[in-house]
Amino acid sequence: MQVIDSRTVTLQDKKKKVRKRYEKRDGLNVHVIPAKVQKHPFDQESHCRVGIYARVSTDNIQQTSSYELQKNYYEDMVARNPNWELVGIYADEGISGTSLDHRDEFVRLIKDCMDGKIDLIITKSVSRFARNTEDCLHYVRMLTNKKPPTGVLFEAEGIYTLSDNVELSLSINASMAQEESHIKSVGMNRSIEMRFSMNIFLTPVLLGYDLDDEGNLIINQEEAKTVRLIFLMFLCDYKCKEIAEEMTRLKRITKIGNEVWSGGSIYGILRNERHCGDVLARKTYTKDYLDHKSVKNEGQRPQYYAEDDHEAIVSRAMFRLVQEKMDQSKYGFRSGTPELRVIGEGVLKGFVQVNPCWMGYDVDD
Questions:
Q1: Fewest C-beta in 10 Å: which of 118, 143, 162, 180?
Q2: CA-CA distance, 195 to 326, in Å (whole number)?
Q3: DSSP secondary structure, 199-261, as one string
């Protein structure tokens, strides 16, 4: 005799009910209300407030022309559409698109959109909008989900973010823009290292020096007096803050024209090997190409040291003396000059006390 499990019967009954429910019906009592068709911005007959975003990544002359061309082109585009109103042109010049750092105009654009001032953003391409995939998708989604939504038109790719099924296409293009930045970053790093290995160094603005027509450091005699005084004062046991106060009192001028000095600027001058004629390249490096933040190079990248690269303001011996003294000051030993003290009493009377933290100066120093 076959035994039928009551639970099996119950499950089969439920399946029959589901099948019966989905059997073909005539649908005579169902009326379909069609969805609103999302129009492309070029097809809109209603009033549309437009914001233009333009960006160039560098501030050289060639990029400036590109910057102006973008602005003029999109101004004309808005003017040709009678239902469009130009809210403004938001333009970042000489700024990278891999992060929002210093992209003040982009931030202002997004704020105006969230405040309901803009219906449509037009930009040249995904890479102009953002070279960071995460940022690109984040802001597009933010603008799409607000009520009413703000669309973004990426002209080069033909992507309008309020159209259906654009997420995949936008993600692919944003990833390609980010990878392009990555490739450029790797290429720039290789180029920099090749320059350094060939004794071609960057020449930043530096107190005590000017640049000749070929970009070489030449001594500025008036500024060199300030540099020498700073090194001498430090060896005479002045702290960086005290030297800064004295430079301010003497009305000495910093390289960028300030009359007020800071302890940090004094510290930077004392630590800069260029003042003794040498160059240490690659002190810092960019760890992440997306945020462009420089971090101290502690062996993660090769460094390049060149002696006698240019004329020195202070001797290499004096510079080394200052570095040793500064290293000692980290541990609370302000003076680098050995002081011999004879013990005056007790069982060690007559002995000379030797401080193990004295710096190892040689006769030449």
A1: 180
A2: 31
A3: T-------TTEEE-TTS-EEE-HHHHHHHHHHHHHHHTT--HHHHHHHHHHTTPPPTTS-S--
What pLDDT score does 182 carry? Answer: 66
pLDDT digits (tens, 9 = 90+) for 302-339: 777 788 888 999 998 899 999 888 887 665 555 445 55
Q: Which two tokens stand for residue 183?
A: 């490739």
Res 303: pLDDT: 77
Q: What's the CA gap between 315 and 318, in Å, rounded?
A: 5
- Centre a 10 Å sphere on the Cβ of residue 78 and count the other Cβ atoms it contains: 18
Task: Decide if 127 contacts 159 (C-beta within 8 A).
Answer: no
Q: Output the six-digit token pair for 194.
A: 């090749």
Phi and psi, residue 121, nearest 5°: -105, 130
Handedness of CA 130, 131, 132, 137 (dihedral sign): positive
Using alpha carbons, list the distances in angstroms from residue 127 to 124, 165, 315: 8, 20, 50
Residue 262 CB burial class (10 angstroms; 0-12, 13-18, ≥19): middle
- pLDDT number for residue 44: 61
As to burial, measured by CB atoms within 10 angstroms (0-12 exposed, 13-18 middle, 19+ buried), residue 199 is exposed
Two tokens, residue 351? 């002995």
Pair 87, 49: CB distance under 8 Å? yes
Task: Name the residue with higher pLDDT: 167 or 330.
Answer: 167
Burial class from Cβ neighbours inside 10 Å (0-12, 13-18, 19+) for residue 94 reads middle
| Residues 6+ positions from 271 with CB-CB distance below 8 Å | 323, 326
334's tokens: 């302000």
> Phi, psi (5° rounding) for residue 201?
-110, 155
- Looking at the predicted structure, is the pLDDT value of residue 105 above 80? yes
Mapping DSSP onto H, E and C, the string for 38-84 reads: CCCHHHCCCCEEEEEEEEECCCCHHHHHHHHHHHHHHHHHHHHCCCE
